[in-house]
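[agent] plan:
  1. take the single chain provided in the ticket
  2. run structure prediction with default settings
  3. attach structure tokens to the ticket
  4. add a short note for the reviewer (M.T.)
[agent] executing step 1
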Amino acid sequence: MLTALLVVLILVALIVAHEFGHFLAAKFSRVKVEEFGIGYPPRAFTIATIGGTEYTLNWIPFGGFVRLYGDQGEDQRGRGSLVEASRLKQAAILIAGVAMNAAMGWFLFALSFHAGVPQPIDTPLPGEAAHLIVANIVAGSPADGASLKAGDELLGIRDTVDGSAAGALTPEAVVDFVRERGGRQLALSYKRADVEYSTNIIPANAVIPGAAAQPALGIALTLFSVRSIPWGQSFSDAGLQTISAFETVGADLWSLARTVIRGSPDLSGVVGPIGIVGYVNDAARSGFGSIFLLAGFISINLAVINLLPIPALDGGRLLVLFLEVVLRRDAPRLAIQLLNALGVSLIILLMVAVSYHDIGRLLT
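[agent] step 2 finished; step 3 output follows
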């Protein structure tokens, strides 16, 4: 329940930030903002009316909106009307929402790095808590046969014959401990999703390519710790993370688009609000830094998705503006309304399909 509430808060905050970008650009362009709403109608109450703008709180708590004068009909013309503003200003207002999500992503990444996120380390600092994580499993190895999985945290390993244990939980210490006990049964304890497990496992030879004579379990281990980064470095690293996130999201969307073009859309890798609950729940186990990191990725996703040339999204409206510039005339209002309705319908269908996959993943 708390995780679901956290997901709602994250999505609302990011959507409101997106709308706040439109709001700032509209104010700067002297386009009248009639209403800035948190949540969707029906309206709960009006918080305040400042500068001709109503600030409202609405009953459906899943986002927010900006209502601009001149954005709803042909009769809304005159001073402060969106349709009377130059197309350059209209484009700037549309792009501002995407830019705000990009800026929010950068800020959230910086916040996560400063708060501390799990990162691979070589040697723990004095008094620092470190976690030994299974990074990879060799297929057909003793570890694979014992049902170990990537992401498991190794808690301990000991010899069931003499009771000896690895001197320290580091990749090197575990490798040395296993190497000396080929053919002997070892007791291994590990944690997965906050649940502790134990299993018996026997090291075998010919597990590692190029080291046939070395007893091994068939696991790659990485030492992780949560470390805080100073603010200056956090913002610098966050800039690189933002660029990387845009590249990742863009590549994923292009892969999805190719499956659609081939006529066999694959939504297995697409996650909706229901699926995000699981990711947030996992991130919460690692602390606030991981939650901020995930929120940053969601913000970048919103930025990229809103740039898609789909009616009702910012990218679709930017495409209409571009066509108006090329054709040197306004697009018919009715045609725009029909396209927006089509875009909303497509988005709803996509959300239903994605939610269906999310529920399927949760059940399995």
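[agent] step 4 note for reviewer: The radius of gyration is 26 Å.
[agent] ticket updated
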